[in-house]
UniProtKB/TrEMBL annotation:
<keyword id="KW-0238">DNA-binding</keyword>
<keyword id="KW-0805">Transcription regulation</keyword>
<protein>
    <submittedName>
        <fullName>DNA-binding response regulator</fullName>
    </submittedName>
</protein>
<dbReference type="InterPro" id="IPR001789">
    <property type="entry name" value="Sig_transdc_resp-reg_receiver"/>
</dbReference>
<dbReference type="InterPro" id="IPR016032">
    <property type="entry name" value="Sig_transdc_resp-reg_C-effctor"/>
</dbReference>
<dbReference type="Pfam" id="PF00196">
    <property type="entry name" value="GerE"/>
</dbReference>
<dbReference type="InterPro" id="IPR058245">
    <property type="entry name" value="NreC/VraR/RcsB-like_REC"/>
</dbReference>
<feature type="domain" description="Response regulatory">
    <location>
        <begin position="24"/>
        <end position="140"/>
    </location>
</feature>
<feature type="region of interest" description="Disordered">
    <location>
        <begin position="1"/>
        <end position="21"/>
    </location>
</feature>
<dbReference type="Pfam" id="PF00072">
    <property type="entry name" value="Response_reg"/>
</dbReference>
<dbReference type="InterPro" id="IPR000792">
    <property type="entry name" value="Tscrpt_reg_LuxR_C"/>
</dbReference>
<feature type="domain" description="HTH luxR-type">
    <location>
        <begin position="166"/>
        <end position="231"/>
    </location>
</feature>
<feature type="modified residue" description="4-aspartylphosphate">
    <location>
        <position position="75"/>
    </location>
</feature>
<dbReference type="InterPro" id="IPR039420">
    <property type="entry name" value="WalR-like"/>
</dbReference>
<dbReference type="GO" id="GO:0003677">
    <property type="term" value="F:DNA binding"/>
</dbReference>
<keyword id="KW-0804">Transcription</keyword>
<dbReference type="InterPro" id="IPR011006">
    <property type="entry name" value="CheY-like_superfamily"/>
</dbReference>
């Protein structure tokens, strides 16, 4: 479902914060148990508090406008909508809002894309809780956070002057193709994917064909198996 621009009307935040004022964090994740765990972790800190939770992109946009958080934690996968598009939209409407992506999805594939879309940091859900708090405070303080592995990879790409070639075929996908692969891995049909990404069925079918070609897959069944395994973090050839 598309969202009207009124949901993202920029709010006017106070010019400054008092020394003792807690910094307010919005959690955007489609799993209640994850949101609950993050809330407990964040609110155990004397200087932080959770100002709201959302499980869809639409809810997140509305809550950003209403709650005026100091930072937003965003998952790649949402109940409705997409974390990548949410980051792009949030950055367009709130240039100074810190955005930290927290996800189970491979940082080697997503981290650089999310930073390019406007995120201030990317951290895996497998990270230790103290590392998550370091990442959150880093983006709250205006910095950028990625793991050492991602940082080294980005430096290597920069140093190679564009000659760097990834061994992972998923890296060859465009952002939109990656979103479609993600939806297939979640078990969504072509029509459901079209609705989730606000695209036509024909456009999604075209993306599916390009994905198969880039990943050297011949059939829709092979694409489904590849996507399910990739989404679950298994080897592409493994049995779902």
């Amino acid at each position: 479902m598309s969202v009207g621009p009124s949901l993202f009307k920029p709010a006017h935040k106070p010019p400054g914060m008092s020394k003792d004022q807690k910094r307010r964090v919005l959690i955007v994740d489609d799993h209640p148990i994850v949101r609950q765990g993050l809330r407990r972790l964040i609110e155990a800190e004397a200087d932080l508090e959770v100002c709201g939770e959302a499980e869809t992109a639409r809810e997140a946009k509305s809550m950003i406008r209403e709650q005026e958080p100091d930072a937003v934690i965003v998952d790649v996968s949402l109940k409705q909508g997409d974390g990548l598009e949410l980051v792009k939209d949030a950055r367009a409407h709130y240039p100074a809002l810190p955005l930290l992506v927290l996800s189970m999805h491979d940082e080697a594939i997503y981290a650089e894309r999310m930073l390019s879309a406007g995120a201030n940091g990317y951290i895996m859900k497998q990270a230790a809780s103290d590392q998550f708090l370091i990442a959150l405070r880093r983006v709250l303080d205006g910095g950028i956070y990625v793991s050492e592995a991602v940082g080294n990879s980005m430096i290597e790409k920069f140093a190679s002057g564009g000659a760097y070639i990834s061994s992972n075929p998923v890296d060859s996908l465009t952002n939109r193709e990656l979103q479609v692969l993600h939806m297939i891995g979640k078990g969504l049909s072509t029509r459901q994917t079209a609705e989730a990404l606000n695209l036509s069925v024909k456009t999604v079918e075209s993306h599916r064909q390009r994905i198969k070609r880039k990943l050297s897959l011949r059939t829709s069944a092979q694409l489904m198996q590849y996507a399910v395994n990739w989404y679950a973090g298994r080897e592409p050839g493994a049995k779902p």
